Amino acid sequence: MTLDLTAFRVLSFDCYGTLIDWEQGISAVLLPWGREQGLEHDGETLLETYAGHEAAVMREHPTFRYPDVLAEAFGRTGVSLGGEVSQPWAERLGGSVPDWPAFPDSADALARLRRHYDLVIVSNVHRDGFAGSNRHLRGEFTRVITAEDVGAYKPADPHFDALDGALQELGVGREQLLHVAQSLFHDHVPARRRGLSSVWINRRHDRPGWGATPEPAEAWSYDAEYPSMAAFADEVDRQHG
In DSSP terms, which residues pair with 123 in a beta bridge? Predict the structure, then answer.
């Protein structure tokens, strides 16, 4: 059965992995670092190793700003892979978020979706980082909820507690919210836990492995799957006539 996309009033979005190509952004630092260190690991190994460490740092230090999470996770990745992460390298990754590129379809898709819904960002990032990313996205968002705002990182619940508060302010019920995200680990696990409808933007549909997103350890679900934001926006436009 096709999900009725006309039944929703608000779309909440994960940003990094869904709208911003964080794997390309992270790899732009990890790959030259790996070459400098003489490591023979491929890009996918670097990303998957980094992903596990980033999730651990987020659990252990929920109030770290995201640049500090990036730097700490990079250092742990170096230890795991037998390389040294100097302070300049750590700072390079930590400061790179505003340079991470948007997926080519993101800005256009957001502009089209804005005609039908209020748009909300629910992201594991700091405020300045998202502000830099939104220069690429050019998005008009009703609310922006960051890790810096809630003092925690998904898949923990505080982002979604704040999202509930935003819905109340907008006079919108949970049944009128659709969460849109790439990460099963960060987003579809907590969405299922809270009974939220969700759409999987499966950006890695043509590649094996988990990349920069850890494999989920808890149950997850979603109500529809699309390979890109463009495909999702196309279906929204079709259903809205």
Answer: 146
